[in-house]
Amino acid sequence: MQYKMEVSALEPTATGAKDHSSSASMGSSTYHPLFRKPSKRQGFLQLQRSREIEQISWQSFKWQNQMTHALVSRLGITKELKGHRGCVNCIEFNTEGSLLLSGSDDYNIILWDVYKQKRLKILSTGHRGNIFSVKFQPQSGDRVAISGAGDGHIEVRELETEDVTHICTCHEKRVKRIATVPTQPNNFYSASEDGTVMLYDMRAPHTCNSQASNFLIDLRQHAGSTVECRCITIHPSRPELIAIGVNDPFIRIYDRRMIKVNSVQYFSGGSGHLERNNYSVSHTTGSSDNLPPGCVQYLVPGHLPDRLREFHRQGRSLSTTYLTYSADGTQLLANLGGEHIYLFHMANPQYPRHYAAPSATKLHSKECDAVSNGMCKSVSANTNGISSHLTEGGDRMSVYFYPPVPPLTPRAESLKARANQAFAAEKYITGLQLYNQAAEISPNSAVLYSNRAAALMKRKWDGDIYAALRDCFTALDIDPHHVKAHFRLARCLHQLGREDEAQVCLDDFMKQHPDHISSPACTTLANDIAKAIISKQREGPDIDGDNDIPFPTPSAQEQKWRSQASDYHKYYCGHCNTLTDIKEAIFLGSDGKFIAAGSDDGNLFVWDSHTTNLIRVLPGDESIVNCVQAHPHTCLLATSGIESVVKLWAPLPQNDKTKEAPVDMEEIAQANQQRMCIDHNEVIFMQPLSPSYIEWLNHDNLPLN
């Protein structure tokens, strides 16, 4: 159903910010909804001058210039490192950036010299499954490597002598990730598809038998027997914080200090992984649960919990394939398989917002109750986050004093005008990129957020309606009487299936803006909401549909943890992550100016982390790019995928004639969105099958649904 409040609903180019100042009944009380300062960034010459006069340190100068727009715009492949005979599933730089490890389906690990761009050594491992993770042991002088593979085994070996010093076979299924801690050289963690995370201390003797005694986290206790760990990462400055991604959209951050290492009894009559897994799951009881209620904080994109059953009926899987912290640990980046890439603010978490009846007298957010460990926060109410209540304008105005909103800068005004033109021409992707740039320059403009919401509602990619909802809330935070933001908020709630909230929001809209009650758009939306409410009342309980796999039932404690999950800060879209469950996403540069990730279409994607705009799409593999890792100190990348090579990327000379021809990024992003929304078996036939791709398919590397 179309509502005729579209292009005409876009604000005029001239921005006349309303002054909502009024005398406050509470004396000097004031309310400042956003009013954050736009970020100011110095150019290279300004930074160089600041360095010369010692206004900034050399560390800060390097921090801000490792990756720049000029360097990223010239990125290209400088070398292909050949030596593997199968897909390269993992790559890892050492701390200095002089060495690189790679692990492959050929069961081998190769040590590379990064600067000389040559192979130093091929290590034949004892693994009999695809190697999914390889790490340098911290503080070992780059002489020790740790590997985990599809056979469920973990090996620790000397790189010079190739001697294996430790072997662990405790995991029952594939080991997907190894995590090390720079300040704890003797410890490392492993995450496996058996749903467990194990902690290893190489100073202590370890025997793999029927009693595994190094279980740190057993997710099967609360998430069910089908849970699978896909990735793990450690906070860079607080190693007690462990982030884990599994085959659901929830990210879990555990506080190691509150968890005791546990033991799990295995079936002694058989050595097979399947027998051991079935036995250990059936003998997992509440008495062996070592996860106290306050030990974990959950994160999830706010629109996904309500869609889990819908995705399950469609046979569409969601799983976190990679997690990484920013260098300072204030942000966490998650590559969500089957969806987008999400950025979470750890220092200032956000929570989903809900529209409530106008009974309160102010706009407020329910604060989180901090717990004693200083990390985890929980919401006191049993809802999925924070409820922010929009009330009648008169009530709010009687309590709060609204300072005038600053006008748009000339640059933001120009970007907004161009974005409005793109919207009118139905070029919504272009319009969104322009609105993103304008909002970064002038972050306190309700007009920009409202217009961007309109463009998101038109593009309708996964997550766009929810992102539009967030923009409408932000616009109303800045300007509580913004007509179009309020109406679009009601539309978003309706399209998200939150009909009760939509009805309350629309009723409040008609009270505040009676001139619009008889408008066709308002009448149509009111009828649609009423029909949806009646239809929902007639529907029976949710069923699993044609999916043979039953919908998992989490424990009561798990449901409580999920209900308290915090929301994302920003999201990055355009790539496709459905065919493999090892696809990575990373920060580029020490200050995280850019985000990079591989894709099912064989391209390397680069986004501006601040505006979320896609700025580069580079061919990186003949089939799929899975891995991307950044050099720790300079503008250099390494990528790998279905091909049996590791590719090194660096800025090419400005006059290099071998640079790739420009590609249509919007067309590629649109095609990837279509890929992401269909069955992954159909995706296979949407692109040519290369020989290495066919070989990879024969290795059964597809994620399980």
Automatic annotation (TrEMBL):
Residues 22-31 have a biased composition (Polar residues). Residues 1-32 are annotated as: Disordered. Pfam families: TPR_19, WD40. Keywords: Repeat, WD repeat. GO terms for cellular component: Cul4-RING E3 ubiquitin ligase complex; cytoplasm. WD repeats lie at residues 81-122, 591-617, 618-649. One of its GO terms (biological process) is negative regulation of fatty acid biosynthetic process. SUPFAM superfamilies: TPR-like, WD40 repeat-like. Transmembrane segments: none annotated. The keyword Metal-binding does not apply. This is WD and tetratricopeptide repeats protein 1. It comes from Scylla paramamosain. The lineage of its organism: Eukaryota, Metazoa, Ecdysozoa, Arthropoda, Crustacea.
